[in-house]
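Ticket #4471: structure output looks truncated?

Reporter: J.K.
Steps to reproduce: submitted the chain below (133 residues) through the standard prediction queue, then opened the result file.
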Amino acid sequence: MKKNWILTTVGAVAALSLLAAEKKVDVSKLPPPADKKGLTYAEDIRPMFEKSCFSCHGPEKSKGDLRLDSLAAALKGSEHGKVIEVGKSEKSRLVHSVARLDPDEAMPPKGKGDPWTKEQVGLLRAWIDQGAK
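Returned output as attached by the reporter:
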């Protein structure tokens, strides 16, 4: 009986984890990608990450095994997988987080930095849609 209870509990936790991973967000609330062409990580995106993200996701600290201080690290993702879907900003978890589509996943967290503006989210979206170079 106890063994069955443990298996059932483990199964339930696994199912909840999958549901959380598949959590849907309303992408219609995303600001549109910026019109700017030729965006690069070094010139356009890294400065925004440096200002808002490096204290938790930089060279000194990498919460959730996510680092945003280099292009390679950002594309690698976190302990939960990729956060950038190259060419598909509307499917990128990083975009959902900085756009605050899910209050539980909003970045930067309340009290840890200013929320990103629609313009910043638009630049991030455009960079990802252009190939995240």
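Triage note (M.O.): checked the attachment and the full token line is present. The helical segments are 2-21, 41-52, 54-57, 71-76, 93-98, 118-129.
Status: closed, working as intended.
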